[in-house]
Amino acid sequence: MPDRQSTNDNNPFAPPPEGQPDQPWQPRRPEGSDQADGPADGPTSGPTSGPGWSSSQPGRSSDGWGRRPEQPSGGQGGGPGGPEGGQGPGLRWDPTDPAQRRARYAVLSGMWAFFFAIFNIPELALLLGALGLYWAISALRARVKAPEGIDGPPTPVQVAAAAGAARSKRTSAISGLVASTVALAIVASGFAMHLVYRDFYECRDDALTTQAQLACNDLLPKPLQDTFGVRE
Questions:
Q1: Distance CA 112, CA 110 (A)
Q2: Contact 142, 98 (CB under 8 A)
Q3: Which residues touch 195 (CB under 8 Å, ≥6 apart)?
């Protein structure tokens, strides 16, 4: 039978010495150590156990790594929105800013208008495209709202946050403007086709058979028959 493991080892799961009654588990400390628990906020000079840092843990570096970021002045700490409800230093989307809201509305309206135009639903495409165009232009003309709760000149962090918010708003507004313009162009081209080649569309709608509809393709120019004509 192997001998029991020595209690001098730093093994917290080692069995008790021979002849000693069982006791509740507790951290084993080196002999002569009078520290009950190590400090909870940094490394110690000697080996400890318990909730404190180990002596082998590295300390904070000279470049500031491992420290908590300092809260900027002006009431911008305490979360992404700041305790005063203003825009935080790293926040690029402020739902309380009308310009940023319109830029997001322009993106959504332009995207759905483009989809409805592709799937040949011109009514919804025209409505959403017009709304997206209006929101995009109004967002581009408006300025980003300044964060609330700032006393004195803005800090570099606040200037960078304002520049990021303006850049994000401009990107969203331009994307919505392009999508809405493309959707309106598709709808306008469809209306122009119905106006210029009215005879073809009337012939197609009045035809009672497939062969009669195919005969209506002769009313279209050859290059447009494969795209807008009736297919078998």
A1: 6
A2: yes
A3: none
Per-residue pLDDT reduced to its tens digit, 124-157: 999 999 999 999 999 999 887 766 656 667 778 7
By the 10 Å C-beta count (0-12 exposed, 13-18 middle, 19+ buried), 226 is classed as: exposed
User: Residue 60 and residue 64: Cα distance in Å, rounded?
Assistant: 7
Our measurement of the distance from residue 99's CA atom to the centroid of its chain's CA atoms, rounded to an integer in Å, reads: 18
Largest separation between any pair of C-alpha atoms in the chain? 110
- DSSP class of residue 114? H
Q: What is the pLDDT of residues 142-199, one digit of tens each?
A: 887 766 656 667 778 777 888 888 888 999 999 999 999 999 999 999 888 888 888 8
Per-residue pLDDT at 123 exceeds 80: yes
- Show Cβ contacts of residue 172 under 8 Å, excluding neighbours closer than 6 positions: 100, 103, 104, 106, 107, 139
CA distances from 91 to 33, 57, 108 (A): 50, 34, 21
What residue type is assigned to position 79 of the chain? G
Decide if 114 contacts 182 (C-beta within 8 A).
yes
Q: Give the residue extent of every domain in the chain.
A: 92-144+155-193, 197-232
Q: Which two tokens stand for residue 124?
A: 């919804």
End-to-end CA distance of the chain: 91
- 156-196 vs 98-118: helix axis angle to the nearest 10? 30
